[in-house]
Design goal:
The protein is mainly alpha-helical. It has two domains: 36 residues; 94 residues, no CATH class. Helix content is 49%, strand content 0%. It has four helices and no strands. The longest helix is centred in the N-terminal third of the chain and has 28 residues. It binds heme C (3 copies). The site of one heme C has 18 residues, from α2, α3 and α4.
Length: 136
């Protein structure tokens, strides 16, 4: 009994280790035979960093630039969260922006897949800001 238990424990450990790797790698590798997240396409030009770097390090950039803005009052930042949303938000059939953290949207697909939870959008807008002061 004890041997079976230990064996099961070990296998569970190996399995979760493997799953951990799979979760981290799958969005990067993007094999079509695995259930990888479907990432909505971006608008506008190039991303703020090369795509493979963004996949890996986007949260470090975001946190770094948040600290700059919130603690030092610097707003001319490269990795603005508002900027991510400007390019990565999508519109629905009636031309309305869909919240970036909604089911299947850019900041949500990978995170569901990787079991990441972020609280950013309790404060930050989930759709691009409407330009109010601009002349038509
Ligand atoms: C409790 C509210 C709150 C939460 C939660 C929060 N922020 Fe912020 N964040 C702010 C405020 C307030 C500012 C300052 C906005 C300004 O002055 O432009 C800011 C600024 C920023 C900026 C710089 C401005 C910009 O548009 O990019 C970044 C980047 C940022 N936050 C990222 C994040 C990320 C990533 C998360 C989640 C991990 C997060 N924030 C969660 C309130 C919040
Ligand atoms: C000027 C437009 C623009 C801005 C601003 C922008 N991106 Fe991107 N991003 C892109 C484009 C274009 C791609 C390439 C993939 C595509 O076409 O959808 C991309 C790709 C990515 C990817 C890889 C997606 C994948 O397919 O694996 C991540 C992650 C990402 N961006 C995160 C961010 C984050 C986080 C921010 C804000 C700090 C941001 N982006 C700001 C345009 C932008
Ligand atoms: C290509 C897939 C992908 C996309 C698209 C993506 N993320 Fe992530 N994100 C991840 C993964 C994977 C992690 C966990 C990485 C880790 O923990 O090593 C993560 C982690 C984070 C974290 C850190 C969470 C924590 O607990 O520290 C923040 C903040 C974050 N993402 C913000 C965003 C925002 C904002 C967007 C949309 C602009 C976005 N992400 C889009 C894959 C993605």
């Amino acid at each position: 009994m004890a041997r079976i238990g230990g064996n099961q424990l070990c296998r569970t450990g190996i399995v979760s280790l493997f799953l951990g790797c799979a979760v981290l790698w799958a969005p990067v590798v993007g094999h079509s035979d695995v259930a990888t997240p479907k990432i909505p396409a971006a608008q506008g030009g190039q991303c703020v960093e090369p795509v493979e770097i963004m996949r890996r390090d986007h949260f470090d950039f975001l946190k770094h630039d948040r600290d700059k803005t919130v603690h030092e009052g610097i707003r001319t930042i490269k990795h603005s969260l508002a900027g991510c949303i400007d390019c990565h938000a999508t519109k629905n059939a009636s031309g309305q922006f869909v919240p970036i953290n909604a089911e299947g949207e850019f900041c949500q697909t990978c995170h569901t897949y990787a079991a990441v939870k972020i609280d950013c959008f309790t404060c930050h807008a989930t759709v691009p800001a409407v330009k109010m002061s601009q002349s038509p």
